[in-house]
Amino acid sequence: MEQLFIDLEKLASIPGIESYLHIISSEGDKIISIRDFAKAITDGEFIKTGTDGAIRFISENPDKGMRNAVFRGKCLGDSLTAEQAAAIKAGTFQDMFVGDYWTIGGVNYRIAHLDYWLRCGDAECTKHHAVIVPDTCLYNAQMHNTASGQYEAGAANTTEGGYIGSDMYKTGLNQAKAIINEAFGADHILSHRELLVNAVTNGKPSNHAWYDSTVELMNECMVYGSYIFTPACDGTFISYRYTIDKSQLALFALRPDLICNRVDWWLRDVVSGALFAFVHWYGGADCSGASYSLGVRPAFGIC
């Protein structure tokens, strides 16, 4: 009499390397040796359903946790398509991974994180989004403007008012916002609430407020995964970071080589009464006088 599958003996270990497994495939019932099956899993063949391998497997799963753990680096085209925008809005992020990019106007706009700001803010961010960081700086600008447009010693270097008080925040990002709106469409740029420094006392951030945010300079934590020059607790002084951007962007965690793009570029962190943080062209973390003209490489969300 034919034996039912459920009635077969259950094994707790493999009885021998030359044992076989029964595989039900689209081409009919097959068998495969345990040896070959183990090799297929080890080599990654088990999850390959096409040339993308594991990427193809994850692509069919909407969980963004897996997507934030995989760098792919695929070009997604020269514009945000309706299908891509719909996938972001739905939170499925279909066929999008960290490191993927659009090339628009000669700039590679790369996905740095998925849903980085979701659920954050004094008014909760509820829109699914992809955080984008350009590979290159969009232009150079000063944190504190001077008449010459170049570095000037003395009072020209100030962090008074923090990031919010800087000329970069007031006007210096206007060009970046125009470029980004043109590239992705203003309706697709995420507006969310950010906690930003608006006062500095004795060279240390001393107050903050919530602001509507679209395009901003990144902070040290988003880039490096930790604070380096930003004033820290020293046993008597208790620092407050005044930020919700407290995690490293997945792009830089998976590909730290993409932090350095061989030019100096600003971060928004106050370091002292005269200095803001920046990423040095040779890859080091650094800080500089506010009147220097350095690269503008902002982060923003598309939704």
Largest sheet: 5 strands, antiparallel
Class inferred from helices and paired strands: alpha+beta
Q: Biggest sheet: strands side by side, in what order?
A: 3-4-5-14-9
- Nearest-integer average pLDDT: 89
Coarse morphology: elongated
Instruction: Give me the oligomer status.
Output: single chain
Structure summary:
By secondary structure, the protein is of the alpha+beta class.
Helix/strand layout:
Blueprint: E1 20-25, E2 28-33, H1 34-42, H2 54-59, H3 64-67, H4 82-90, E3 101-104, E4 107-114, E5 130-134, E6 139-142, H5 162-165, H6 167-172, H7 174-184, E7 192-201, E8 204-213, E9 215-216, H8 220-224, H9 250-254, E10 265-270, E11 275-279, E12 285-289, E13 293-296, E14 299-302
Antiparallel strand pairs: 1-2, 3-4, 4-5, 5-14, 6-13, 7-8, 9-14, 10-11, 11-12
General description of the model:
It contains 9 helices and 14 strands. The radius of gyration is 25 Å and the shape is elongated. It has a 5-stranded antiparallel β-sheet with strand order 3-4-5-14-9. The protein has a 3-stranded antiparallel β-sheet with strand order 10-11-12, with no helix packed on it. The chain has a two-stranded antiparallel sheet with strand order 1-2. Residues 45-51 have low confidence and may be disordered. It is 19% helix and 26% strand. It is an alpha+beta fold.
List keywords for this structure.
about 300 residues, 3-stranded antiparallel β-sheet, 9 helices, elongated, alpha+beta, about 25% strand, about 20% helix, 5-stranded antiparallel β-sheet
